[in-house]
Specification:
Layout lengths: L1 E2 L3 E6 L4 E5 L3 E6 L4 E7 L13 E2 L6 H4 L4 E2 L6 E4 L3 E5 L3 E7 L2 E7 L4 E4 L6 E3 L5 E6 L3 E5 L13 E4 L18 E2 L2 E6 L5 E6 L5 E5 L10 E6 L4 E7 L3 H12 L13 E3 L10 H14 L6 E4 L24 H10 L4 E5 L2 E3 L5 H5 L16 E3 L2 E5 L5 H16 L5 E4 L12 E2 L6 E2 H4 L3 H16 L6 E4 L2 E2 L7 E2 L8 H15 L20 H11 L6 E2 L18 H13 L1 H14 L4 E2 L1 H4 L13 E3 L3 E3 L9 E6 L5 E3 L5 E2 L3 E6 L7 E4 L3 E4 L13 E6 L4 E7 L13 E9 L2 E9 L8 E7 L8 E3 L2 E2 L6 H6 L3 E5 L4 E7 L5 E6 L12
Parallel strand pairs: 6-7, 17-33, 23-24, 23-35, 24-25, 25-29, 29-32, 32-34, 45-49
Antiparallel strand pairs: 1-13, 2-3, 3-4, 4-5, 5-22, 8-9, 9-10, 10-11, 11-12, 13-14, 14-21, 15-18, 16-20, 18-19, 19-22, 20-21, 26-28, 27-28, 30-31, 36-37, 37-38, 38-43, 39-42, 40-41, 40-43, 44-45, 46-47, 47-48, 48-54, 49-53, 50-51, 50-54, 52-53
Helix pairs in contact: 6-8, 10-11
Length: 830
């Protein structure tokens, strides 16, 4: 066992501090005032070769691979105070104390509050098998993130395994189990102070976290991280807010993609339609038509791998079964014309008798055996196969060539990377590692991330103006900058709604919030009627709203499969479609800061400790609280409304004080939504097809408080927004007896918005007057006349709302709504 219990010396090198201990040298880099890196390399080599980091303060052997994705930063200087028993290194926001004997690291904020502390005497270790450990003190802490896993949202007292597998039929249960991703990052929230911080372990070996689930009478309560190899190489990310931690983590590992608009509606998929004996293309077209007949439009279609099936049903990626799909080009063009593009399934395993096997073998494009002499062979779907090595640039180019010729040139706008967990039994199998050379144990976790990068590249190279979109089942830290993800092959069970919801929240707290689970479940028997209804009603708040199935009872999960609940599901989908202006704005913010679209209540209400343990409610964006019905047979729902503001029922505008539990009655129509005081939600009635339809009348629902908001839009399909072709409204609200709303447009995108209609809520009184740019707006007392008018205002007593409409003149506007006291009778107060 190698230990780091004695600090022998500390010296300042070129851009880092070198800490010498009895067991390992340690390097300490300060990237920003709030991010530092500590790396203990027991080999002493300190080689830098990362596919994950987009910000570095050092030369990296893969700089040329990441290219413009990576930025070299200078790092910062810090103050050093050497004392008899310790060193104190200080930034403007935190102090890092290094105890000399016994060596350990402690972090405090500028007020002296302890944020983090290693477990002295046991902080960083390496055992005789090369496994590395990092022990930290456990206090009254709550833990969130860890990438994708089952189990409770708060991982205190949980053991989390990061060992991606093809986890079909996984159990969403209170216990945490591994799924498909490898993201060794978590956020800690101090239960006493609410202070948030993050730890990201830059290690791609299979790993485990033990978050207070071990106890020993010889040590303080502790957590620890363990990895099968590599270094203890972590980035500490300071808060104190959760928003700052997620922002800084995605600054370090890459900002999420901005998803195209067609991905925001109902994404349909099933293995069944691609497994018909013939004319599967017509089956897909018929599905779309039936959806329109049912009032449930489809926005995109995931094309299952049956299109690549040979006569014996084995999958041969980049081939076509022409009996099932006679004309692939016609198939894609037809769907694109309907505003419902398809993204075809691809898999990185190549069967030994695949016609393209030798293309990859000729350039050593497969992961090689432990001796590096021949392709590694292991179990694959349908037989034995080899795995494309995406760390080999030649293999990437071959993959891109076939993806272009067989899929993109036929009309595919996006691709679906499936079964890419690289479940390789021989951990010593060899990978190219872009010429560096490495083993599968180290690199299998990043293979799907580099695969997603390659697919994003070929989509962009083939259609430079079109926004690339990739869906990936697996990935490492950094996958968010290439792909949308989902939690794989779940079951059709009630438990999977609840814990699937928590899984999405956990991914959002891991910097990869563009995530979802298969609505209705992927495997097992068909979902029962109530289960499908409730899952769809919850799923409208998922970042990815998708129904995908491979049921074991020869059925297909379709949103209209049960006549009795189709109206309720139709209504739920219409809520989502109406909110696309709001959702797309939130996705744009997600792409800029990492802020998840669907996030735990505590993300926005960190000062309210009552939110720390709530995982069956969430904030949908920054303004809407949602509390889906996720239990069978519920007749009432208990809902917590966080402290710090009032809340308004989305449908009735009934007002509730924050900081309390309420109980509401539940029926089949119930989809609880609450508008936050100070919140703004943009919505429309104009969108049924997100790819083809545009907002002409933008509704803006405001629960007024002094606040700032942004509405964002662009064409939703191209990269033109990067050149300034977007439409943004900067909205500043000043609330007093007169509510002043300043709206400033920005950007060069020719918006389709012709009219604005505001809904300004005030449950205490109606408006006295309204003005636009200091000109009085005419008041209507007759609702029908107001509906016909292009300009005017009306007070709706039924939901306590001032409705104001006016045409878009594409200029800055100042809207005022007076709630001043007016003594109509002139008799004064009683």
């Amino acid at each position: 066992m190698k230990t780091t219990n004695k600090l022998l010396s500390l010296s300042k090198e070129h851009n880092y501090f070198l800490i010498k201990t009895e067991g390992s040298d340690i390097r300490l880099y300060f990237l920003t005032e709030d991010i530092f890196r500590l790396r203990a390399d027991f080999s002493g080599e300190f080689k830098e070769a990362s596919y994950i980091l987009t910000k570095t303060a050092w030369e990296d052997q893969l700089d040329h691979v990441l290219g413009e994705e990576r930025e070299r930063i200078a790092g910062i200087d810090v103050n050093i105070d050497e004392q008899e028993n310790q060193y104190i290194l200080s930034t403007s926001t935190m102090h890092i104390t290094l105890q000399k004997d016994v060596f350990s690291l402690m972090i405090t904020d500028v007020n002296g509050h302890k944020i983090h502390a290693d477990l002295a005497g046991r902080n960083i270790q390496q055992d005789h098998l090369g496994r590395v450990y990092h022990y930290t003190e456990l206090n009254n802490d709550n833990f969130y993130g860890f990438g994708e896993s089952t189990g409770a949202l708060n991982k205190r007292y949980h053991r989390i395994s990061l060992s991606p597998k093809d986890a079909i039929g996984h159990n969403h249960s209170p216990q945490t189990t591994n799924l498909y991703k490898h993201i060794p990052f978590y956020v800690k929230v101090d239960g006493d102070t609410g202070y948030a911080s993050g730890l990201f372990y830059h290690n791609t070996f299979e790993s485990e976290f033990f978050m207070g689930c071990e106890r020993s009478g010889y040590w303080k309560e502790y957590n620890y991280f363990k990895a099968d190899g590599g270094d203890i190489d972590y980035f500490f990310i300071n808060g104190p807010s959760l928003k700052e931690v997620i922002d800084r983590y995605t600054y370090l590992t890459g900002r999420p993609i901005l998803t195209p608009k067609y991905s925001l509606g109902y994404i349909a998929s099933t293995m069944y339609y691609a497994e018909l004996d013939q004319d599967c293309d017509e089956g897909h077209f018929s599905f779309l038509e039936q959806g329109l007949d049912e009032g449930i439009p489809t926005s995109a279609f995931q094309l299952a791998s049956g299109y690549t099936a040979a006569a014996d049903r084995r999958r041969f990626v980049f081939t076509w079964n022409h009996k099932r799909f006679p004309d692939p080009k016609r198939f894609f063009e037809t769907l694109n014309d309907k505003g419902c593009p398809a993204f075809p399934n691809t898999k990185p395993g190549i069967l030994l008798d695949h016609p393209l096997y030798q293309d990859f073998a000729a350039v050593n494009g497969f992961i090689m055996d432990a001796e590096g002499k021949q392709p590694y062979v292991d179990n694959w779907w349908g037989g034995l196969g080899s795995f494309v090595d995406f760390t080999n640039p030649k293999a990437r180019e071959i993959w891109k060539k076939h993806a272009k010729e067989q899929l993109i040139d036929h009309g595919a706008l996006m691709l679906w990377n499936d079964n890419c967990e690289y479940e390789i039994n021989d951990r010593m199998a060899q990978c190219d590692f872009d010429g560096i050379g490495g083993v599968a144990a180290h690199l299998k976790a990043v293979q799907p991330t580099v695969m997603a990068k390659a697919v994003q590249e070929v989509l962009s190279e083939s259609r430079p103006s079109v926004r690339p979109f990739v869906l990936s089942r697996s990935g490492s830290a950094g996958i968010q900058r290439y792909a949308q993800t989902w939690a794989g092959d779940n079951k059709s069970r009630w438990e999977d709604i609840d814990y699937g919801f928590q899984c999405i929240l956990g991914m959002g707290m891991s910097g990869a919030g563009n995530h979802g689970v298969d609505i209705g479940g992927f495997t097992r028997e068909k979902p029962e009627q109530e289960l499908l209804m409730r899952w769809a009603q919850a799923g409208i708040f998922y970042p990815r709203f998708c129904v995908n199935s491979a049921s074991t009872d020869n059925t297909v999960t379709e949103l209209w499969m049960y006549n009795d609940v189709t109206p309720q599901i139709r209504r739920a989908l219409q809520i989502r479609l109406s909110l696309i202006p709001y959702i797309y704005t939130m996705f744009h913010k997600h792409s800029q800061t990492g802020e998840p679209v669907l996030r735990p209540l505590m993300f926005d209400f960190q000062s309210d400790p009552n939110t720390y343990g709530i995982a069956d409610q969430a904030m949908f964006g920054d303004s809407i609280l949602v509390a889906p019905i996720m239990k069978k047979g519920m007749t009432e729902r208990h809902i917590y409304l966080p402290a710090g503001c009032n809340w308004y029922d989305w449908y009735t505008h009934e007002r509730y004080a924050g900081g309390q539990w309420i109980t509401i009655a539940v029926d089949e129509e119930t989809i609880p939504m609450y508008l936050k005081e100070g919140g703004l939600v943009t919505w429309t009635r104009d969108i049924q097809n997100p790819m083809k339809d545009h907002t002409k009348v933008l509704h803006l629902s405001l629960a007024p408080q002094t606040s700032q908001h942004i509405y964002y839009d662009d064409d939703g399909l191209t990269n033109d927004y990067k050149q300034g072709r977007y439409y943004q409204l900067d909205i500043n609200v000043e609330y007093d007896s007169v509510c002043e709303i300043a709206v400033t447009p920005e950007g060069d995108y020719p918006t389709a918005i012709e009219h604005f209609e505001w809904q300004v809520i005030n449950v205490e009184k109606g408006a006295y007057w309204c003005s636009l740019d200091n000109e009085v707006i005419p008041q209507f007392m007759n609702r029908k006349q107001f509906e016909k008018a292009e300009f005017g205002w009306l007070y709706e007593n039924s939901d306590s709302t001032v409705r104001i409409k006016y045409p878009n003149n594409y200029q800055p506007r100042l809207l005022k709504v007076s709630f001043e006291k007016f003594d109509l009778v002139g008799c004064g107060e009683d």
